[in-house]
Specification:
- The protein is an alpha/beta fold and 327 residues long.
- 51% of the residues lie in helices and 17% in strands.
- It is built from eleven helices and nine strands.
- A nine-stranded mixed sheet has the order 7-5-6-4-1-2-3-8-9, with helices on both faces.
- Helix 11 links the parallel strand 8 and strand 9.
- The longest helix is centred in the last third of the chain and has 33 residues.
- The radius of gyration is 25 Å and the shape is elongated.
């Protein structure tokens, strides 16, 4: 039997891309990977535009194209991982729907996979996106590498190929807030990285904003870093010691120059605002950790499905055992 390649594509308001992307993937599969079977699995995160209708049409015309419709938007961290869990090919290729993950990379991933690499990932060596955003992402990757206990992969967005053995590891995880980059670094096999230049989004607008990117960054930090909260402890000791020294210095100066030395209120006001800001900063981070713990303790499903298309009964029975449930 032919080996099967599952291509998983999360979507949200991608009406301008899903049809052309499916055509591009099919063309690459039939031209360069004709000795493999394949499936294309779209997991839609409750799109508000015409994406669902277009996916229904694609599924009706091609049984190799599957679709899962979420009951609501479950965020950019949960839906893609859930889609991977529903793919049962010999390997899974995960890519975005906006053409910023080049379709032409799939044959390169498969070649490295056949050479024995269980995980083959795409690393951005350059990007045609906005320079400011690329710089911010680079700073985040460097920061999280310094404050976490594992080696995070810089300029990696999740685009890559994953052997079924690794997907089975992900499938067995019961994490309601999965952070795939951390999972690969912590639990994955040795990976092969292939560099590429990230093109601009072909059509439509990015759904990411400051809040969604901040939320995803906090998932990575709170899941894999102890440094931030330990900094609060160290800062408390250091500032406490400095305050004690400053108090002694002020006392000595006052005793020596009682009539001439006036401390004034400015140092007290500045110190109060500084300490207040520092406390709010670390209380905010503590709140992020508490929210992360709360989400994991509740252990809710990754997503709730509204409908799935082109899944036969045998596949559906096995996939229902994964996280999530039907409504």
């Amino acid at each position: 039997m032919k080996k099967k390649i599952s291509v998983v594509i999360p979507t949200y308001n991608e009406e301008a891309n899903v049809v052309s992307l499916s055509k591009a993937i099919i063309e690459v599969m039939e031209r360069d990977l004709s000795n493999y079977d394949y499936e294309i699995l779209f997991i839609d995160n409750h799109s508000k535009d015409n994406t669902k209708a277009l996916l229904r049409g694609l599924c009706a015309n091609n049984k190799k194209i599957k679709a899962i419709f979420n009951a609501k938007n479950f965020g950019q961290a949960r839906s893609p991982v859930y889609g991977m869990k529903q793919a049962y090919g010999d390997c899974v290729v995960r890519m975005c729907a906006d053409f910023q993950d080049p379709v032409e990379m799939i044959p390169k991933f498969v070649k490295e996979w056949e050479d024995g690499h269980k995980i083959v990932i795409g690393i951005k060596s350059a990007s045609k996106e906005r320079k400011g955003m690329y710089w911010i992402r680079s700073c985040y990757y460097k920061l999280i590498n310094k404050i976490t206990d594992i080696d995070h992969i810089e300029q990696f967005t999740g685009f890559g190929l994953y052997d079924r053995k690794f997907v089975d590891v992900v499938r067995d995880l019961h994490d309601p807030m999965p952070y795939l980059r951390g999972i690969i670094a912590e639990l994955g096999f040795d990976y092969k990285a292939i560099e590429y230049t990230q093109p601009k989004r072909r059509a439509g607008k990015s759904k990411n904003n400051f809040y969604s990117l901040y939320d995803y960054a906090m998932i990575g930090i709170t899941s894999y870093s102890k440094v931030v909260m330990r900094l609060a402890t160290f800062a408390g000791f250091i500032i406490g010691g400095l305050s004690m020294i400053a108090a002694i210095v002020y006392l000595v100066l006052k005793l020596m120059y009682w009539n001439r030395f006036s401390a004034g209120v400015a140092p007290m006001v500045i110190g109060m605002f500084f300490l207040g800001a520092l406390q709010l900063f670390f209380i905010g981070f503590l709140g992020e950790y508490v929210l992360s713990i709360n989400t994991r303790v509740l252990d809710r499903p990754l997503v709730v499905e509204e409908e799935r298309l082109n899944f036969d009964e045998e596949e559906s029975d096995s996939e229902k055992k994964a996280q999530g449930r039907k409504v």
